[in-house]
Amino acid sequence: MSWTKEMRYRHYREMTEAEEQELLEKVNNSIWRQQFHIQPPYGLLNDPNGFAFYQGKYHLFYQWFPFGPVHGMKHWYHVESDDLVHWEEKGLGIAPEYDHESHGVFSGTGMVKDDLLYLFYTANKRDQNWNRESSQSFAVMDEEGKLAKQEKPIISKQPEGYTANFRDPKVWKSGNQYYMIIGAERENHTGCVLIYKSADFLHWNFEGELKTNFEHFGYMWECPDIFQLNGKDVLMISPQGLEPEGDFYQNIHNSGCFIGKLDLENYYFHSNVFQELDAGFDFYAPQTTQAPDGRQILIGWMGLPDMNYPSDKDMWANCLTIPRELCIIHDKIYQTPVKEMNKRRGSLVEWQGYVNKEERHLENFSGQTYELICDLELENGKAGLKLRTGKQEETLIYLDTNLQKVVLDRTNSGEPVSEGYGSIRQVAYADKKVSLRIFVDVSSVEIFVNEGEFVFTARIFPQEESRGVKIFADDTEGYLDVKKWDMKTSNN
């Protein structure tokens, strides 16, 4: 199907009942629909937006193009939850309405002020020559869930010296002032974030760039987020245009963070290290919020810009990650599944023992949706797990002590995904013991290594019958302790 501009820039209200029914029929027949991840009812999902705790619930929006699995006129779709695990679909949240947002409402964040939830976003417009015009605006949600939009932008355009790639506002309060950072591209095509200040949410003064020690680091910094964690400041960005370096930056675009100190007097973020947030294939545009108990919770887009996925033919694309709690250990971000995910645990099966130069199918472990924990130990060689196995399909996660790496291999995971970017991801790892906590859904795996020291996120597209779990050890003996819980997939 060839998508024209006219097809890509239709408003949701233009969708006919017949179009919606046709979309729903195709989506409902898809063999890859997820069971415990946030996903679109149809069409394309991308960046999480407006993540906030308000009036006793977690509110989360995501970028949504309703008409198909392509990027077009973006809306915000709304879901909410009491517990970060069971999400209720609330439907369309924010839609383009005014001239300055005629071509979509782009990403942004949420902040509670005066018992209202303010949802900041980038308004996107194209002129007659298809040149982009970007401005910043907000909508307000009240206690009854009603949304009202600011009619005019609060920031009408980018400052001098920057392109119209000027988007994704993040707002926070420090002292008596409000601050906003916005992802930007300099006219020399290098990425940065810009900082604004306000006393009232309506009038914003441009303060300049938030300086860092990374002046030439990709051509655009998307989806900036900034927060405090374990007494340190964290600046999170999704830089576009990074070149691969060893095992790092292997995807078309990447996400990561700086840990350091935010200097609001000189607008400088002091940090000398950029840490990639995910070692897998499909992770981008993460956003965080603070839970009532003080935890910093992250949710990311389980997908990437400028990519195609096998589910596209079923007229839907992408999902969000499970929520992850963040902490800092030895100046490194650790990510662990939120404790509430334990509510999803169903029946348990276990296996412990040695595997010596063999492959073994684990009885009673088969399934499409489950949580699995594996503690693995070996001397020299390669040993690990094969997930979603079938006649010709398997997803491998293993420790290779000779290479000194933990490896995720989706070469034979099913329908191929972006093979030009490779089918193997790996992380340097010198120990001979490793702990893996794995969440398997119908078309994804999320693998948390050593209590979140690093994470692999990947979409996989196996056939329905590929449900097996195997353990293996190549030319070595390994000891494995494996526990698997069936996943309760009901939202009740």
Automatic annotation (TrEMBL):
<comment type="function">
    <text>Enables the bacterium to metabolize sucrose as a sole carbon source.</text>
</comment>
<comment type="pathway">
    <text>Glycan biosynthesis; sucrose metabolism.</text>
</comment>
<dbReference type="InterPro" id="IPR051214">
    <property type="entry name" value="GH32_Enzymes"/>
</dbReference>
<dbReference type="Pfam" id="PF08244">
    <property type="entry name" value="Glyco_hydro_32C"/>
</dbReference>
<protein>
    <recommendedName>
        <fullName>Sucrose-6-phosphate hydrolase</fullName>
        <ecNumber>3.2.1.26</ecNumber>
    </recommendedName>
</protein>
<keyword id="KW-0378">Hydrolase</keyword>
<keyword id="KW-0963">Cytoplasm</keyword>
<dbReference type="InterPro" id="IPR013320">
    <property type="entry name" value="ConA-like_dom_sf"/>
</dbReference>
<dbReference type="InterPro" id="IPR001362">
    <property type="entry name" value="Glyco_hydro_32"/>
</dbReference>
<dbReference type="InterPro" id="IPR013148">
    <property type="entry name" value="Glyco_hydro_32_N"/>
</dbReference>
<dbReference type="GO" id="GO:0016787">
    <property type="term" value="F:hydrolase activity"/>
</dbReference>
<dbReference type="InterPro" id="IPR013189">
    <property type="entry name" value="Glyco_hydro_32_C"/>
</dbReference>
<comment type="similarity">
    <text>Belongs to the glycosyl hydrolase 32 family.</text>
</comment>
<dbReference type="InterPro" id="IPR018053">
    <property type="entry name" value="Glyco_hydro_32_AS"/>
</dbReference>
<feature type="domain" description="Glycosyl hydrolase family 32 N-terminal">
    <location>
        <begin position="37"/>
        <end position="337"/>
    </location>
</feature>
<dbReference type="InterPro" id="IPR006232">
    <property type="entry name" value="Suc6P_hydrolase"/>
</dbReference>
<feature type="domain" description="Glycosyl hydrolase family 32 C-terminal">
    <location>
        <begin position="351"/>
        <end position="483"/>
    </location>
</feature>
<dbReference type="InterPro" id="IPR023296">
    <property type="entry name" value="Glyco_hydro_beta-prop_sf"/>
</dbReference>
<keyword id="KW-0326">Glycosidase</keyword>
<keyword id="KW-0119">Carbohydrate metabolism</keyword>
<dbReference type="Pfam" id="PF00251">
    <property type="entry name" value="Glyco_hydro_32N"/>
</dbReference>
